[in-house]
Structure formats: structure tokens, C-alpha cells
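ingest -> validate -> predict -> emit
validate: passed (alphabet ok, no gaps, 48 aa)
predict: started
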Amino acid sequence: MLRDIIRIDEELCTGCGLCVPNCHEGALQIIDGKVRLISELICNGLGA
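emit:
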């Protein structure tokens, strides 16, 4: 099964953090003012 890993457009990211609690796997964090995918292993591609 192919997972759809999230891709973050850093040009559009404002670092507001609204996406972080919506990631049920905890794969997103704000680092240096931008959201980052901290682990592709825990991202299941839910897309919430």
C-alpha cells in the first residue's frame, strides 16, 4: 500500500501552528517558525 506523505510548502507556511493539533499521528512540529514533518515513519497520509 502506497502512503500519501504530506509535503509542506515552506513559502506558504506562516508558522501559525493550526495544522499541528490536526495531525493525529503527532508527525508535525513548529521548528524555527515553520511547520516540519518530524518523521515520515509516523505519517500515515491521513491528510486531515
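The mean pLDDT is 87.
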